[in-house]
Every structure is written in structure tokens, then in C-alpha cells.
Design a protein that fits this description.
Layout (H helix, E strand, L loop, with lengths): L5 E6 L3 H14 L3 E7 H9 L6 E7 L1 H10 L9 E9 L2 E7 L1 H4 L9 H20 L2
Antiparallel strand pairs: 1-5, 2-3, 3-4, 4-5
Length: 134
């Protein structure tokens, strides 16, 4: 059994290049970036801690989000889909995409056939975006 709830990709790119590549790969699959949280900047500003470059991208495919919210409105708590980009080593970044298939099968959400189907479609799209990165 696979306990992972993410699809992970390691890129041999600078941090900014990795974010640009991830954003473009997601765009091809119909996802846009709604939010960007630069965790390292937030930690520095709020608690004066230095942290490696680490960004959380909140991404959304509007068609799939609409279908999911129509099927069950409280699923909005699981949206948008998060993608993290972090520096792993010099010239290397780790990208983690949430697995929407796992997300939409969580707890009682898995009892809703529509959500399971939507999660599967979103997972296919995100999986293709991840695979296109290398």
C-alpha cells in the first residue's frame, strides 16, 4: 500500500526556474496558480527564522473545482490543490504535488462517487504535469 499523498519530482534547476517550470506544466493541464506563499519570507518576517527557499502554490482547475463544489460544498476545505517547491541541494529543487485522488478519497469523501471520479481526473492531470517535468 502506498501511504504517500504526494507526487514528488526532483528538478536540477534553480528555485525560480523550478517554480516557473511547475507553473507552466500545470497551466498545460488547465491549472492556474491562485496563491503563492513564500514560507521562508513569512517565517523571517513573523518569527525571525531563516529557512531554505520553500514556496506553497495553491493551484486550481476551475472546471474540476466547480464539479467538486457542486458534488459537496464542504470539499472547498480541500481546495485549492497545493504544490510545494523547496530547495533540496545546490541547483536542485524538490517539487511535491498533492495527489487529488487521495485527497478526494479521504474519510467520508471517498463515499461520494462523483468526488472520487473528480479526484481521479485531477490526479491524472497533475500526474501528467509532474511527468512532463522530467
Amino acid at each position: 500500500m502506498n501511504d504517500s499523498f504526494s507526487i514528488d519530482v526532483t528538478l536540477q534547476d534553480s528555485f525560480d526556474e523550478a517554480i516557473e517550470k511547475v507553473t507552466e506544466a500545470l497551466k498545460v493541464e488547465g491549472f492556474g496558480v491562485l496563491t503563492r506563499i513564500d514560507v521562508n519570507n513569512v517565517l523571517k518576517a513573523k518569527i525571525d527564522v531563516d529557512f531554505r527557499p520553500y514556496t506553497i502554490l495553491g493551484v486550481c482547475n476551475p472546471v474540476l473545482a466547480h464539479k467538486a463544489l457542486t458534488a459537496r460544498s464542504d470539499v472547498g476545505l480541500m481546495l485549492p490543490c497545493n504544490v510545494t517547491v523547496e530547495t533540496a541541494a545546490e541547483g536542485e529543487c524538490l517539487v511535491r504535488f498533492i495527489d487529488p485522488d487521495k485527497m478526494m478519497s479521504f474519510g467520508v469523501l471517498g463515499d461520494n462517487a462523483d468526488l472520487v471520479k473528480i479526484g481521479g481526473e485531477a490526479a491524472e492531470r497533475i500526474g501528467r504535469a509532474a511527468a512532463s517535468l522530467g
